[in-house]
Amino acid sequence: MMQPQTEKTPLLEVKALKKYYPVKRGLWGRAGVVRAVDGVDLTVYPGETVSIVGESGCGKSTTGRCILRLIEPTEGQIWFEGTDISRLSQDRLRQMRRHMQFVFQDPFASLNPRKTIRQILSDPLIVHGIGSARERKQRVEEMMEVVGLSKSHLDRYPHEFSGGQRQRIGIARALILRPKLIIADEPVSALDVSIQAQILNLMQDLQREFQLTYLFISHDLSVVRHISDRVAVMYLGKVVEIADKKSLYEKPAHPYTRALLSAVPIPDPDAVRERIILEGDLPSPANPPTGCTFHPRCPSCMEVCKTTPPPVKEVGEGHLIACHLDVTG
Which of 74, 128, 183, 272 is the most buried (most CB within 10 A)? Predict the structure, then answer.
């Protein structure tokens, strides 16, 4: 299991999470499955930020949506504060969602264009029966100011705001219920670089103010380094390495993690670093390779990698990898 050993009580614990999509090959072909998420184990502790990184198509966004059951998982367990939410009824799940919220990647598509910002922020409170009309109005106005917007803009529509402002509204909508966990799916990837920094700093300020826990999903390793406490690296639906930020960036152990980090630009024109170029394309999740799924592209591939799934082993304190190589953190 890809889990760090600690005495803390986790807020979120994901065990053997899988999401398979059925597919049919050709008109008369046999049915198969796309293994979007294939046995993910993940633990998130109160107050920390855990990031999930990987190439496009590795299953990181699907993992986040499965955790909140926006997409129903095929198998696995999702424990939140000691409750297995993967088996809850829709009514009980709706009550639990008050404590778990989602920030979407596209700040425009995630906001209803036919509703004012006041309506968008009030709806979660109405759905969960929180407060009187006066109390809801007061909370909505306070939340606008918390995310750096004016309450005088509450009666405007989403199209009247910039991308960065719309993402602030999306964050305000997630915070309005005072959740304990926020899953943020590439929340700054659609924004300009200068705006990205503002949103990331806002999220960190809000984390301290509201004692939030983040599961942060991104493909941008520079952004992840800025905001994370621990980082999980995914490849083809599986977590291949997980470690605290310092260990992962300074001593990456898995060949895939090393290749990803070698592609991160260095803000120093005189700095020299070896670039690791991975050969071939990302395999299809409908037909993953046998053994270690990374072996067709791995520069350190051995014969055992082609036939036997790699064991999960600890190479440092809390630093876990799924690899046959004899490495140390």
Answer: 183
